[in-house]
Queue: 4 jobs
Job 1
Amino acid sequence: MASFSPDGSGGAAGADLVSPASPRPEQAPSSGAPEAWEAVLRTARRLTAARHRHEVLRLATTAACEALGYGACAAALRAEDGAFRYEMLAGGTADQERQLRGRLVSAAAFDLLMGASLPIGAVRWVPPESLVRHHPEVEAALLRTGTSAPAGTWRRGSLLVVPLVDEAGGVVGFLSPDDPRSGDLPGSAEALLLGSLAELTEIALETVAARDGARQAVAVAEAQRRQLEDLLTASVAVRGREALDDVLTEIARALTSAGGFRRAAVYLLEEDRETLRVRATVGLDALEDRRLRETPVALAEFAAVMRPDMHVSRSYLFDHRRHDVPSELDEKLSTPEADPDWVDGMWHAQDMLTVPLVDRGGTLLGLISVDEPVSGRLPGLAHIRAVEMFADQCSLAVGEARRYEQAVAEAGTDPLTGLPNRRALLARAAELLADGERRGVPCAVVFLDIDHFKEVNDRWGHAVGDDVLVAVSAAMAARLRAGDLIARYGGEEFVVVLSGTTLEDAIGIVEELRRRVAAVEVPRLAGYRVRISGGVALVRHGEALADAFGRADAALYAAKRAGRDRLRVADAA
């Protein structure tokens, strides 16, 4: 249908599918002759063996030309949006086919043409003088053609449409034969043949779709098997990881390799339950990865690509043909360059599949955003469900990793002050000293002790003593710099590790800590002033952590012996 125009003339405005000077093949059988019926039957047998829809449409359009005596025949199929898109042209040049494929017949234009058409059996004929031919949507769908035979009842600009109708009565496509070599409109016998060819074509399309479905089912089963293997491999890797981010990275890798996507980003909800932050990516360069990790996204913003009408199974498929991403959200996502050769039905750079991460209790943990399917096509339901299986595993892994990290944090945290305890101190201090050694910057270790703390416990009770410990630790932690470490070593003793600090600066920081502690007011100790003593040691090159700690501790006890409420430097004369 898109291969016709009202006046049928050539010229600058269009191109002829068949030139008027084209010879009329003498061997073309009359469309009502037994030879034509036999040719259609041979086409039917070939259609049953067709392997894909393009082969079906090629056989059908070729049969219209060679068996039924038309100079050209176009075929179009209905897309999900209701428009008809051309997929095949027989009898035309490559340039004409390219022009035809660049056009579509909107659902509105198709309805207009059908409403203005006259029936010839199963064939619909739109006369060239029909006013509907001047409707803008109809004109945009048609391509100028010519004739190659003397005109009889066929006139330039005539339009033939043979609908492809499924079992439910819906039109799923059409054949549009043009330029009859007889010069006449089809008679009843020829219309019957065209209708039979259209019915055989639709049956063949259904058969191909069924075969594709069976093949896809086998492929999905095989993919699921591979996915299980990948998940088992990932679970082994996860068991060897402690940090949540490492767990997510391992899961994301398994998701993309088994799920059939080249890019993935895993978002987790922050504690406020309103903010999403990227915690793992696959398929992004380092710059994009860092940008996404540093750019939080409000859950409310993500709702724009998780609308109910985008729902597929438990996920959300954002189709750029139907929706637009708000500019505020688009700036926070990673969108690859669009493929200049993109065609309808293929995955577009602006498309997106979002899979929620939900725990067993139904609580949203985060989202997985996947992009660039390896197949290059929009994912089907089976594919999406396979990805969701991975997401379920992700949710389990996230929950386990969080519980593990919480257990690790609790094991390394002093429950009273919230500071790292002695175990966490030793691990973190070793890292800080090793880092300072690599960078060639000095580090200092400070031991601090609350003076006369036993008297506080004995006089006012341990509950008041706990208040003192909490107030002192908070005052000191508030003064320290990012990268410094403070921990409760035991009882009323604290240890501070100052990274990248000279001895002089370290002394200044400790004196400031002592002044802040002296200013602390404990509600149940009105008028009581807390005092602390300290010992500081500058870590020597290559010195073991235990040795540095020993020198700082010895300096602390020297300060206590000297009368308390003072600071001593290790190894000072």
Job 2
Amino acid sequence: MAGYTGKAPTTDPRTGFCEANSTFYSKRKPVPLPANQSLDVTTFISSRAHSGRIAFIEAATGRQLTFSDVWRAVDAVSTFLFEDYGIRKGHVVLLLTPNSIYFPIVCLAVMSLGAVITTTNPLNTSREIAKQIADSKPVLAFTIPQLVAKIAGSNLRVVILGPSASQSSPDSGNLRVVASIEEMMRREPSPTRVKERVGQDDTATLLYSSGTTGASKGVVSSHRNLIAMVQTVVNRFRLDEENSTFICTVPMFHIYGLVAFATGILASGSTVVILSKFELDEMLAAIQKYSATHLPLVPPILVALVNNYETIRKRYDLSSLQSVLSGGAPLSKEVIEGFVEKFPKVTILQGYGLTESTGIGASTDSLEESRRYGTAGLLSPSMEAKIVDPETGAALPVNRTGELWLRGPCIMKGYFSNEEATASTLDSDGWLRTGDLCYIDEDGFVFVVDRLKELIKYKGYQVPPAELEALLLTHPEIADAAVIPFPDKDVGQFPMAYVVRKAGSTVTQSGIMDFIAKQVAPYKRIRRVAFADSIPKNQSGKILRKDLIKLAVSKL
């Protein structure tokens, strides 16, 4: 990574800030990175010593894979891909599936060859998936029989994730279903196969950013990015020291799931229990059945645990649980304290990261840190940050709000086949412009104020939607809320709120507008309210503002 040295100059030990270059440096111990540059992430993970035995458990069937099963399968699948399908370094392979016990096997096998894995959301439409295929140009796809129809127009060779290739859909169109994953896993690895040399700087993954503020773009991450991420995850939880069992409900196709399960947790020797989709009762039953210790989740699930506590307590034994790991959006004081009150033995940890930073950025690593309410945590190990004034480009000191820039070993190589987007996001010194408005406080904690691109411009004033949403959620009759910019020819934009009322509430539009008006400057007032049954959010828990903006504008 250009510009990144991993060495911090003289910094304030409390803030991590260096006045000489206006840069914040992580206060956490740096992650060790392997010196061998000719190293792929699969080899790196498989060569790590650990004491774990069971790697993956499929919750629906109880099927288990030991670590030796996993590495035998990875070796067999990579041999099959290399010898039978000619998959080589630089080729792109598409993976379209819900969470599955096969997911990490495919990822690790593909990356071991120096080929590139690209994942997509199973809920995406055929049109959305076709767009990604046209952009990334995969040479092979892995999918389940139920999703074959979604890639029917692509003329791709397909491997079925399941026991038999004959399970293919009648809607398979031009596709050639060539094998099943189980057939590939039975292949005897070739002792004579010569692997191509894969280096840390080579591309490993091509994940598409969520596109909450614009078109989705392909994020190119290197083997070095993933190795640094694995080291960060393993060191953060000190998982080598204990037998840990994680529940996997977060989507594996997303950077959060890939970080937590397909690579990071595997490297620690922990056991991962995989649920194909999130369903609250199934998740709770799996925690009880497998004595799970760690539960990565997104904020809406954590809220559901708090709200349904009495029912949960009567039906499930969650005494094995040691920590919940929340990502996607900051947790409020009410949610944190509500959870601590009901689950006093479970530590809440939070994290902040982007697809562009391989899921790494900042984290809280203890309940004490999480109780600095609203924080995303301290900068992750080996991470550097700047807070930059969006108007002047000047780097700002402690407790000043600006755009968060990040630099470190987890920062992406760039956007796939999109030099313009790369140049506007990554500078020549390796700084990633996150698009998040943040400040870093006097103890080095990062606070995310809002998305820079989502700021509402009212008469030239900048209004952060998240600030108004936080106020709305303090109203006793409001269950959920989202604030968007509403176009207006006189003022440019003004804040509009979508509100979900609590059951039995009679709160009115004017009542909500008055509630906010008493608490904010005149330019921040909400000037339009619509009531909704729910607020649309992506699987990370982020509000899909662009969907609400489209809805609001359609009614003009």
Job 3
Amino acid sequence: MPTQTRHGTAQRIALALAGVAATLAACGTAPEATPPSPEQPGASAAPLERSDVDAWLDQTLPAALEEGNIAGATVAVVHDGEIVTSRGFGEADVDAGMPVDPDRTLFRVGSVSKLFTATAVMQLVESGEVDLDTDVEQYTGLDLGLQHPVTLRHLLTHTPGFEERITGLIGTDTTPDLRDSLVTDPPEQVFEPGTTPAYSNYGNALAGYVVEAVSGMPFEEYVAAHVLEPAGMTSSSFAQPLPDHLAADVALGYPTAEEDPLPFEVVGQPPAGALSGTATDMARFMLAHLGHPAGDQEILSPATRALMMEPALDADALGILAQGPRMGLGWFDESRHGHRVVGHGGDTTAFHSHLQLWPDDGTGLYLSLSSTGTDGAAYLLRDELLDAFADRYYPGPGATESTVPADVREEHAQALAGAYESTRGFHSTFLTATGPLQPTRAVVVDGDRVRFTPGPGQLGAAEYTEIEPWVYQQVGGHRVLTVRADDAGQVEMIGHDSAMSMVPVGAARSASIPALAGGAAVLLLTALAWPVGAAMRRVRARRRTAAVGNDGAAPGPREAAGAPAPVRLPRRLTRLAAVVTVVALAGWAYVLIAVMNLQPVPELLVRAVQVTTAVGVLGLLAAGWRVVAEVRARTGWVRIGTASVLLLAFAATSMAVNQLLLLSPDITY
């Protein structure tokens, strides 16, 4: 499923073309985020009571929905064991004018569903049926061919080491089979488990299958009976399609409020994001995790709930990354203002949600939006609401003072400057091209600060300052980055948002995109020049014929001779290879855009594009032959120079094809 910011379920990742390929982004260029205002030390908290929360929401949401072109929203706030408020805004069905009802209208919560999957897993841990640190293949019976064993601890902390997968993530087909989705083209394990935060829908789905395999119940039925029902969530379900008594109440999802609604989104791996629920039900789930169940039955013991919210990996596994936000068992560390906060966000193509608990304060906040909105407005609005809630009800101290000497801050800032790509990405297939196509760029500002564009886990740029050695805090914000460097001070990894990390884009990979763009431009000009040149030669031939008819003079020997025989074939082969390469790159542009927009691409088409690419790469040999032939035939510096430029273009394109794995035999995605 598509996600753009933080840790959503689905990924609204479309490709913005750069030459002949595209970048991992959200349906176009992401809008610039407004820099957060600095936290105000000593600010007084507003009363967390219904009248104040409702007034704040009424002042904030209706105007924001209209401005962002978002169809609807639903919000719930809990505190001290009670539902403070549960609200609906906008419309669940725009054409029908149906308002959002927080008690009846279901929203697709995306990856917030993973909290329910983690809860189900921890029920089995609590009963002794599974262990957090045992190879999950002992529970599932699945042979996934993994290089390193994976445990439930790895799966719930997003450190199993899997690369990303898109196939079947979200679509419109109904009743997906969880086991089949796991065993059909599983992702490669590209990192050692426990060492590298790299958010994984597949990993969470595998955890859900452990629940299914051990309990003997389909995952959806187990969660309904053991999580939703005890929590009092009578209007929520993981079922796809929804049961008849709920189907009529689900909000429609829209790109923007002015566009047609999207079909019901079917999540191919249900544990990762298939839940549909009302705001009131989500409030009951928050209360259950805060120790206030709807009935007499607790979904988990206090000790297990506390365990889920504690960091689940230590410095032995993560190294210095453990000094930043760390995953609990399903929960992200989203602490701010000196308060402990845990949460989880979620995105489908249309819906954008977030759930946060302030466990030490007995508070919870849930919100969901039913449209992406104009220029991705929902992503910004969601973050703004979370920040505004924290600022209003739990204001905290100002920025942390740095303990790092100025000269060290400057040295470390210089080391951080460069381009980075997410570990949550594609590493063994042709989609590895999406990494260097959309790097996060870090530059030094004011000598010792670092500006990231975009900010890690954000839409717009963000500045960070070093507060402890290799630990950075967002300027005017609450986010924290940690940097893993080698003994020489070279950056190896940047950790952020608990389950995310970035690694430097290597020099060769960085060069592959401009090399591809430059080579493609030259080859395109060559391909276009071929028919243009042929047309011009025909025009000249007609003129010569006309001249012969008028005065009887034959063309001169230079005109009649044409190209020297030794260069004719290499010239033709080079031009043909240029045309083939341009066609191949256009094919890759189509494939990448379709895949990243979650559209199925036939395997035969990908193979055909690969074969065309391979033929185009062979143009390097033809271009080399042509340079030698032009030199030997002494065709002049213009011809030799042109041939040399073409040789460089083919070399650059071939290098990029190799770096971006466009000819990889593995075409799964």
Job 4
Amino acid sequence: MPDPSSYRPATGTIPESPGVYRFSDPRGRVIYVGKAKSLRQRLNSYFADLSGLHPRTRRMVTTAAKVEWTVVGTEVEALQLEYNWIKEYDPRFNVRYRDDKSYPVLAVTMNEEYPRLYVYRGPRRKGVRYFGPYAHAWAIRETLDLLLRVFPARTCSAGVFKRHGQIGRPCLLGYIDKCSAPCVGNVTAERHREIVEDFSEFLSGRTDAMIRRLERDMADASENLEFERAARLRDDLGALRRAVEKQTVVLGDGTDADVVAFAEDELEAAVQVFHVRGGRVRGQRGWVIDKVEPTDTAQLVERFVSQFYGEQAALAEAADDATQPVPKEILVPVLPDDAASQERWLSGLRGSRVQLRVPQRGDKRALAETVERNAKEAFAQHKLRRAGDLTARSAALQEIQDNLGLDSAPLRIECIDISHVQGTNVVASLVVFEDGLARKSEYRRFEIKDAAEQGDVASIAEVVRRRFRRYLAETAGETLDTGGSGEVDPTQEAEPAIRTGIDPETGRPKKFAYPPNLLVVDGAKPQVDAAAAELAALGITDVAVCGLAKRLEEVWLPDDEDPVILSRSSEGLYLLQRVRDEAHRFAITYHRQRRSKGMTTSALDDVPGLGPARKQALLKHFGSVRKLRAAGLDEISEVPGFGRRTAESVLAALHGGAGADQETVGTEGRR
């Protein structure tokens, strides 16, 4: 564990100017980024007596091995540079107000010929419009079900759309008038796009104009004695009004604003955001974050504004989304110290003036109190979940250290699991946990070579060998250049530092650059001994190994004849089980994907000269193996890349020799 005094900058070398600083660990990985009006005052506070530091700050400074800084001219520059560094390095100790990918949104695929409406979770894509986020997926489906009566747009997947186009019959939604059935040509592509654009306009807040238009159409239909059409428009109006009622008006002046509130204690904070557009609540989201240092509400607001809206602007730009990422007003409980600088920065992101203010009275104050109650409730619920409790995670890591006899707490744990069915489609997973939490961006999966000739023990050994050979290759011959004064220029360095495990071109960590403190394998003594033997053969001595056996949840260590038995109520055992179960889930998911892909084309494997590309071409053309079986010789010959001889081979493989002849004759007879 590094001693903070070993890398403390010399007295007087830290400037008193404003700037941005970053702490790095012994391998060069950036673990914390911050900004300060006075770099000297802020950085000196980190090198005070360790016993007086905040628990997370103490862990950060004892994990770090180096500190660097960059002097900037204005606070707006500091905001921008801090955001860029956090985004680039993803520091593990920083508060991260990420766009929570678990929140569902309503996606509209405007980049397709026939746009589709569906519930979506995940990163933004180009050419797709997003509405939300919503607190629950059922809320989207309920709203969508109401609106499809008025806007009968496509909601099916590409496979379902293609299949119904091939059979020439719409799905159930098409029969009950909740889809205009473009798959069978009931409407043109242009008309279907108009329906989707009207739907998007309605969800964007232009509800009054849509309702007035339907009222006029209903009146015209009634005057023209078109009573059936008038009745249909009346029902459509009712559906629209019910959908609008679900979005209660909270701000009578039609304001576009985000309302932010916090609930916090010394170690953590919960944040809730209500997105109000056109006076109505259009979405809601929330996070719980760990505090790295003593942080008041004003500092939480400052970090939230810079990171959250910077992320939103980046997402909108990447997805080529015309939706405005920053509202006109951001209502917060307390103004940050540099509110004026943040307003200028936000205005630059939006392209027009943005106000950052504290509501004092009226509807906005009442809404802010509602958001605050939501934040307090979310914080209370979070405290009841021990998986997210910092105290529980710290206790779990300490228990693992004590029971396994490790030199330090295993802040990074990796786990390997093997998945197969009777030795076929053998795959492996590698999952990563840092500070007791899953780090899914660093998960890896492996296809096992020569799987038929080896069992689980040999497969474990192969994965360990491949993973740590990559680690040695990516760090071979590299040294950590600590530099001189510690100051860096973000745009140009005369002698760029080469850091162990850091890609010198991108500045990002390499895929396998960081070894775990603890490697867990799913299994007992044979699996553990195999993993330990591979590490020893590679000369790696600073990675601890253990195995977790499913039967009695025993923990096995290399060269020990008896397992370590942890209490069933142990937080350490609970964490090891979560790591093992996550590796098992990830391995099974990958195995099912490979098995499903193999089963899809297995019926065509015996066709001589038929490779993967032409197999996929056949399946894409006919939609399924069942439809391919029903096809005739001439139909198969029409597929690009298939001649008559190859088509005959396909039919022979699917039906056998006689079956192929019968199928051909039958098809010709029908023609």
